[in-house]
Amino acid sequence: MGILDQFTLTGKTAVVTGCGRGLGQGVAVALAEAGADVFGVGFAPSADKTAELIRATGRKFAYLSANLVSQEAIPAIIDGALKLSGTLDILVNNAGTIRRADSVDFSETDWDDVMNVNLKSLFFLSQAAGRQFIKQGAGGKIINIASMLSFQGGIRVPSYTASKGGVRTLTMLLANEWAKHGINVNAIAPGYMATDNTEALRADKDRSAAILERIPAGRWGTPQDVAGAAVFLASPAAQYINGYTLAVDGGWLAR
């Protein structure tokens, strides 16, 4: 197998949460372009644009609308992927949410909602995928979407910071336990991306300018910047990478 052949995902089936827009949509489409069928999950009733882009690649796409504040939809997600193509090979835990407030005013609801989506559902969906991978006996790939706040504290986002710190260390734990099964568990930590989650930051001229001044690349990231990293970590080319969080940040952490 030549080196470029090791990046193909032909014959694979991927689950991508939060696939309807932003980073999730970019990753889902990239996996399809690399050859994978995609079962998408999102909060919105439909993901028509994602479906259109994926089907244009010739790959199959199915979608489940689910609120990952709870874990009720997890069995249906696994079943949906298996019905789509017969196997589950890749899981991308991209769904996430954020709430902003001073820590002295932060509410229990804002804490619980963020932790449930960003960490609790991520773990239990990973658990379900891991069980399926082990049952299939052919390994698998899990890619968690972490954050710059997996490495740093941030301000005014206590539950988000706690959840993303947890994503990074949970990624390592699952890799430790499941590498023996041929399962690779890694994460991507996007830098400051032009997505809905950063809309408030980008609208704040002073804060946006301060962020851009620190990014050596001099710009906000895009979903396309993350897509290549996701295809790499989902592919046979990353077979010996376990428990690592890859920063895709324009050099932010290097400053």
Q: What descriptive keywords fit this protein?
A:
255 residues, 7 strands, Rossmann fold, seven-stranded parallel beta sheet
Radius of gyration of CA atoms, rounded to a whole number: 17 Å
**Terminal Cα span:** 39 Å
Derived from helix and strand composition plus strand pairing, the structural class reads alpha/beta
- How many domains make up the 3D coordinates? 1
CATH architecture term = 3-Layer(aba) Sandwich
The fraction of residues assigned to DSSP E strands is 5-15%
Give the fraction of residues assigned to helices: 40-55%
Strand tally: 7
CATH class: Alpha Beta
CATH topology: Rossmann fold
- Taken from the alpha-carbon principal axes, the silhouette is globular
DSSP summary: helix tally: 8
What composes the largest sheet?
7 strands, parallel
- CATH H level: which superfamily? NAD(P)-binding Rossmann-like Domain
